[in-house]
Input
Amino acid sequence: MINNGIFSIQITKQPIMKTRNIYFTLLAVVAAFVITSCSSPITLTSWKNPADNSKISKVVVMPLFDKLEYMKPFEQSMDAYFITQGLKALGSLDILNPNIKYSVSDIKKRCDSLGADAILVFVYKGTDKSESYVPPTTYTTGGFGGSWGGGYWGGGSWGGYGGGFYGGAAGFDAGSTVTTGGYWTTTSVVNLKASLYTRSSNDAIWTGDITVTDPNYVDQSATEIAQDIYADWVKYDLLKYPSGKK
Output
């Protein structure tokens, strides 16, 4: 029995051909797990001003982050997704010099001159961190024969399987005892505040409180945030040309 909290598979001793089939099945399962676990869970809690019926067709994305190395990939990924959906988009770094301080009126004038009818501002609100303990689990494996190769999943980033869990070492056919878990994990939740401003009002027409759990890459998280925001704008009928329709 293999059970790591994600999947559970019962394996009994089989001829070499069947063992190899099981091996490739396991690879497929783990590959699927890796693919689905690459993205970061994101939540979006939004509000729309019911008194403002403005619709947007071109937006400037403006993340007010401390580091330029975060701003650039964030803007580019957001812009790229919006554009694929038919919403024209620009990054603030494409039109503003990060070494110059601009007044709000100057920013609006610059955006107006480019035909943008909305500005999407992101503010970083901090990161919440929490720790949790994964208790150890011990179980006994059956024999797999010697065709598993030299420890394909042997510890490393999977953690806790020991060196060469599927190592096909001498005597492994007799079965072995494996312990997983017994460690602390840290979860980081990044909090962002998004606000959409239009020409019609000095107040935000739409706001969104966003959380991103354990983000790995800025550009990947930005794309996923853009997907949620765009879907929310469609729901609120904020787009002049939804889904590329003009």
Notes: Residues 1-37, 143-173 have pLDDT under 50 and may be disordered. The CA atoms of residues 160 and 180 lie 5 Å apart. The two ends are 56 Å apart (CA to CA). Strands lie at 2-3, 8-9, 42-48, 58-64, 88-91, 118-134, 137-141, 176-180, 183-198, 206-213.
